[in-house]
Design brief:
The complex is a heterodimer of chains A (712) and B (188). Chain A is an alpha/beta fold. Chain A is 30% helix and 19% strand. In chain A, strand 10, helix 8 and strand 11 form a beta-alpha-beta unit. Chain A is globular, with a radius of gyration of 27 Å. Chain A starts with a helix and ends with a strand. Chain B is extended, with a radius of gyration of 25 Å. Classes of the chains: A alpha/beta (712), B mainly alpha (188). Chains A and B meet through helix 1 and helix 2 of A and helix 1 of B.
Chain lengths: 712, 188
């Protein structure tokens, strides 16, 4: 074949090929092939089933419906029948199904050997735990990240049986609130009847994101503000930054973090001047303390609000038919007792105790685990205070510390100092579903199933206006080699000769359901709504707790406890004062946004795409300040800064946000993880590092709202 | 002489050009499709026609919607076993196939790995109930009138069936019917 003939053949072949499907079909198929890697999970095809469960990833206490296909959980929705959900769900809880398969799940028990954690069997893990606990004797402590489940009862009973009193809750809004309620002489727990209020003043408390039953709060607001319909509830929100909650509220009032108590008591001043009186004990002392410590001028210095603005809030409350005040920390922790106590005092002044749309004294859960510590006793222990003393070697570190669904190595204020204190613990045991920062430094890691994989219960999460109890039963067998923490502890306790009265956690839950029957209640549902029953609407037939919870429903009771001991005498501690200034002139306003995670859960993989480029990008995260503040301190949009406090520093970039108050740096919590997985790591810094623990005025307990920082 | 050589060479070019062109067309249109697709047979030679004509069944008796409106697709072995729970012991090819189904699947408690002619990828949200006004055969092969299920031709590169509907087909129909072609309609 000659050269021309060859060229003719090639050109003819090429032209012919272009007129066939070969190049076009191969290109198309190659692009499809590139989207079909064999490891991409496939959605199973089969019948959809809805199985009721519960989410405890945040504090909302939502009952959920898990969509399963061929037994496999595929999605999670809010349960429309559950009164704390009403079909709603948080941006964290919606990840429950995906987190079952999270790359950061602990897949088997792990034991420390040098710098590594190595897998061991459950038998070996229990034997090691028993050996260490036996050697420790009474020198054992526990910290729990769950204040609504009976699992903590098992832990507190175990610690008590060992002869120790050291059982703690992780710092949280409900912990401060529980202490504040007790300080005013309250019995049981405080409940907020949000659904029946016609005006809610939220001071600090971010009721739609982090405070209490936030999903239920948002649903109550939503139902009371129908599109095009009559507005039945107004919300005024006081916070240092115009955040998501402020965006939907009827009005936003800028108030410096840490000055929530001053604002509440400043409002009390105007109410009292207008003739308000509680008629209850302690009013004279309260009035005197408010007049001397919270005059309009002092409140202006502390909050930045003019006397007219504060008086206007008082007027709005006084003119509402069913006002409700909810006070707390704007980031769900560290706000101390004074803010909550001052908010409760306002409710008492407004006559909102045991009134529809007001506050109620709810009974605590009955104790069923033999020797378990009452909630009141655990609230008297402060974990931050304890760890500070351990760090300063004023208190001996425990021989064994049991961390139950708690991540103190990441979530405590002054994080680096706290991690050093944790290092002093003789033997740190982490009962965790995820390889979090505490598990990563533990001596023994015992994987716990997620709620969807175990039996779990929940009694009246903080904020709920009525007693409620929900039980989740396993939707799926544990994906990994995990065993419920309470079951592990009951077995180990038995081996050590501690009789806690039960052999399995399931029996604990059954006993609790039986004990709750004495309160008399009903199974909640679309036709048995607690907030309507509270005001005499409907008359649901009473239901046994076991029957209700076995049917996947929330059991609800309208039971209350005697509130005659409530006194205003200690509701106005300290004095309103301006931020300290000096070397650290800026007030830090941490932001708690659920999609980024909580103190228990890091950014879920599926939530990474919800983080905006103005919040985190390229490994760094952004702190927010307004342009005047940025200009004053020589920084600006996109510039890198070091935010330093007395106790630590973080690196960030600046995002200009005119919704932040003057002199305030707003910084999102939930970033800066060093453990977990690639979805949570290498994203910004941990704001908890610069939270500075101070002694709360008039209370002398740890308090870290209003931490002062500087731009270094 | 020079002109003669040029003419010869030009003729050789055209001849081989045509050979190359025709050869490529033959490979591209005849050989390539045969190589690109593998031919698969259903694990059971299900006789649709016998079920429709003899048993008087309708498509939706087996290919039904669930309570929530989602499409259940293919029947399970348990559903088939509601009629075919025992072997027939017959000698016809059809009876032998039924008996094979009963022994290999019903009695063994196994599901049949039926081949799906138009399986869509997971990123496509196709609602059958939203297309309920169309006859099945407007989109699917008319298997309802077949005595032996047709072969499935599976693309060796993509893994999809030759009959799997492509996005342009969905879009064309939506456009013709003035239904939205917004991304979110099919990709949730």
């Amino acid at each position: 074949m000659g050269r021309r003939a060859f060229i003719g053949l090639v050109v003819g072949g090429t032209a012919g090929t272009l007129l066939t499907p070969i190049p076009w079909k191969l290109t198309d198929d190659a692009s499809i092939w590139s989207q079909n890697w064999p490891w991409i999970p496939r959605v199973p095809n089969g019948d959809f089933e809805l199985k009721p469960s519960l989410s405890k990833l945040d504090n909302s206490g939502v009952g959920v419906n898990v969509v399963t296909v061929k037994g496999r959980p595929c999605a999670v929705y809010g349960n429309p029948e559950h009164p704390l959900s009403r079909g709603g769900i948080s941006s964290l809880a919606v990840n429950e199904a995906e987190l079952l398969y999270s790359p950061s799940r602990v897949q088997s028990p792990l034991k420390r050997e040098g710098d590594s954690l190595i897998p061991i069997s459950w038998d070996d893990a229990k034997a090691l735990l028993a050996e260490k606990l036996k050697a420790a004797g009474s020198d054992v402590a526990c910290v729990s990240g769950d204040d609504t489940g009976s699992g903590t009862d098992v832990f507190s009973a175990f610690v008590a049986a060992a002869g120790s009193k050291l059982c703690f809750y992780m710092p949280a809004e409900q912990v401060d609130a529980g202490r504040a309620w007790q300080r005013l002489g309250g019995q049981g727990m405080v409940g907020y009847d949000i659904e029946n209020a016609d005006m809610v003043l939220a001071i600090g408390a971010d009721i739609f994101e982090s405070w209490g039953t936030h999903v239920r709060n948002a649903q109550a607001f939503n139902k009371a503000n129908p599109m095009g319909g009559e507005q039945a509830m107004r919300v005024v929100y006081a916070s240092p930054i115009k955040n998501r909650g402020a965006a939907v509220a009827d009005a936003w009032v800028p108030v410096l973090p840490g000055s929530e108590a001053a604002l509440a008591l400043g409002i009390a001043y105007h109410l009292i001047q207008g003739g308000a009186t509680s008629g209850g004990p302690g009013f004279e002392a309260f009035r005197s303390a408010v007049r001397s410590g919270y005059s309009p001028e002092k409140v202006q210095q502390a909050t930045g609000l003019t006397p007219e603005q504060v008086a206007d809030l008082a007027k709005r409350l006084a003119s509402a038919k069913r006002p409700l005040v909810i006070a707390g920390s704007s980031f769900g922790q560290g706000g101390g007792q004074n803010a909550v106590a001052a908010g409760l005092a306002l409710n008492l002044l407004l006559g909102r105790l045991n009134k529809a749309g007001g506050i109620y004294a709810l009974p605590e859960a009955p104790a069923v685990v033999q020797g378990s510590m009452p909630r009141r006793q655990i609230l008297a222990n402060d974990f931050v205070d304890y760890m500070l003393k351990v760090g300063a070697e004023q208190t001996k570190a425990p021989a064994v510390l049991l961390a139950y669904e708690a991540n103190p190595a990441y979530a405590l204020p002054q994080t680096e100092l706290m991690a050093q204190a944790l290092d002093k613990v003789g033997f740190l045991v982490s009962f965790s579903s995820f390889m979090d920062e505490t598990a990563a430094m533990a001596d023994l890691v015992l994987p716990t199933p997620l709620v969807m994989e175990r039996t779990e219960d929940m009694y009246t999460p903080y904020g709920s206006g009525w007693v409620n109890y929900t039980v989740a039963t396993p939707v799926i067998a544990p994906v990994f080699d995990a065993v419920p923490a309470a079951d592990v502890l009951l077995q180990v306790a038995s081996g050590l000769g501690h009789n806690l009265g039960f052999e399995s956690f399931e029996d604990v839950v059954k006993a609790k359901a039986e004990a709750l029957n004495a309160m008399g209640g009903f199974a909640a549902g679309a036709k048995a709504e607690p907030w309507k029953v509270r005001v005499g609407g409907g008359a649901p037939s009473s239901s046994g707790v076991s029957d209700a919870v076995q049917a996947g429903k929330a059991w609800v009771s309208m039971a209350t406890v005697n509130a005659s001991g409530l006194s205003l005498a200690k509701a106005a501690a300290g004095q309103a004062a301006a931020p300290a200034g000096g070397e650290f002139p800026l007030v830090l306003a941490p932001l708690f946004e659920l999609n980024v995670g909580s103190s228990k859960v890091a950014i879920p993989p599926h939530n990474v795409s919800t983080i905006r480029d103005t919040e985190a990008a390229n490994g760094h995260f952004f702190v927010r300040m307004n342009s005047a503040t940025a200009s004053k301190y020589g920084t600006g949009q996109g510039k890198q800064v070091t935010i330093a406090s007395k106790t630590g520093s973080i690196k960030a970039r600046v995002s200009i946000d005119e919704g932040v108050m003057d002199g305030v740096v707003a910084a999102p919590l939930g970033f800066g993880h060093t453990a977990w997985d690639k979805f949570a790591q290498n994203k910004g810094d941990n704001v908890s590092k610069v939270l500075t623990v101070a002694s709360e005025p008039g209370v002398a307990a740890p308090f870290w709202a209003g931490s002062m920082v500087k731009i270094a | 002489m020079v002109q003669q050589n040029a003419s010869k060479e030009s003729g050789g070019f055209i001849l081989f050009f045509l050979i190359g062109l025709v050869g490529a067309l033959a490979v591209g249109w005849l050989l390539f499709p045969a190589l690109l697709y593998s031919e698969k047979q259903q694990p059971i030679a299900f006789n649709h026609k016998a079920h429709v004509e003899n048993a008087g069944m309708a498509c939706e008796d087996c290919h039904s919607y669930r309570e929530n409106g989602s499409f259940a697709g293919l029947p399970t072995t348990e559903q088939c076993a509601e009629c075919h729970m025992d072997v027939t012991g017959g000698e016809t090819p059809g009876e032998k196939e039924i008996d094979r189904f009963v022994t290999e699947y019903v009695q063994a408690g196994k599901q049949v790995d039926w081949l799906v002619y138009q399986y869509q990828p997971d990123n496509v949200y196709f609602s059958h109930i939203a297309h309920d006004g169309f006859a099945c055969a407007e989109c699917h092969p008319d298997v309802g009138n077949s005595e032996v299920p047709p072969s499935l031709y599976r693309n060796r590169i993509t893994g999809y069936s030759k009959n799997t509907m492509k996005m342009w087909q969905c879009e064309r129909c939506h456009a013709q019917l003035e239904t939205s072609n917004g991304c979110q309609v099919c990709h949730k």
